[in-house]
Amino acid sequence: MTESRGSYTPSSGDPTQYDENGFDQWGYTAAEKQAMLARFATRLTDQPGTMAALLAEYRRTEGISEEALRQRLQISPEQFSRLRLCLVPRNDQFADDVRRLSEISGAKASQLANMVHQVSSFATLPARGVRYVRDATPFWS
Question: Could you tell me the residue range of the domain that residue 95 belongs to?
Answer without folding.
Answer: 38-124
